[in-house]
Amino acid sequence: MENLLPPVPISRVVPYHAVMMAVVLAAGRGTRMGALTTHTPKPLLTLKERPIIEHILIGLRSAGVDRAVVVTGYRGEQVEAYLGDGSRLGLRLTYHRQERPEGTAKALLRAADAAAQDAFVLSWGDIVVTPSNYGALVAAFAQQPCDALLMVNEMDDPWRGAAVYVDAQWRVTQLIEKPLRGTSQTCWNNAGLFVFTPVIFTYAARVQPSARCEYELPQAIAAMIHDGRAVRACAVRGFWSDLGTPEDLAVAEGAL
DSSP string covering the chain, please? Predict the structure, then answer.
């Protein structure tokens, strides 16, 4: 197969020190939320008197991010109208629309033109964490730049998400999306918060449809690991949730 990677040695990592840009993937339907998302997109569901996506953007701003691309989809016009240009939150916001729900790799590619020059934070649009984790993620990347930095959270069995295997130096050695229940030999789950350098767009463009007929970003990260790219991890401290169901919202309401 033709090598589509840029002509940069695998061992070379561009020394980014300040991450000022973010991409938030907020295009999903949120079907597990049931009637809550019939007329409202999941990013606008309320958590502690703020929409979910506002918690994410405020956390990113606290980490030094000053501009973000929000990829919208289902009822995206509501998200765009609510957030506007971002000035109310101290950010500069732009939008790209994912018209068809084709998965996270395709969603990220919608932001390629805006985020292809510098390192950037990526967040799933339904992840909430203790706010200090945003700054910790950016600081970890500044201290030890890499091609991809994954935030991971600890759980008994990461079968619902992606199992992340790390060595003693927190280098990611393997990532398995949706492993069979009870088969993982790691307690680390992909937390849905990342810092990437622009090389991720090359890998995202290569992703093939999964068994769910979606183009999934963890496949791109797994390919980076296979190719010897510098992929590292750092751990969530405090609260984490992916807010998939009304029950998750209720738990987060009492925990954040």
Answer: ----S-S--TT---------EEEEEE----GGGGGGGSSS-GGGSEETTEEHHHHHHHHHHHTT--EEEEEE-TTHHHHHHHHTTSGGGT-EEEEEE--S---HHHHHHTTHHHHSSS-EEEEETT-EE-THHHHHHHHHHHHS--SEEEEEEE-S-GGGSEEEEE-TT-BEEEEEESPPTT--S--EEEEEEEEE-THHHHHHHHPPP-TTS---HHHHHHHHHHTT--EEEEE--S-EE---SHHHHHHHHHH-
pLDDT tens-digit profile of 31-89?
999 999 999 999 999 999 999 999 999 999 999 999 999 999 999 999 999 999 999 99
Per CATH, the number for 21-255 is: 3.90.550.10
pLDDT class of 12 with cuts at 50, 70, 90: very low
Sign of the alpha-carbon dihedral angle for 246, 249, 215, 101: positive
Question: What pTM was computed for the model?
Answer: 0.90
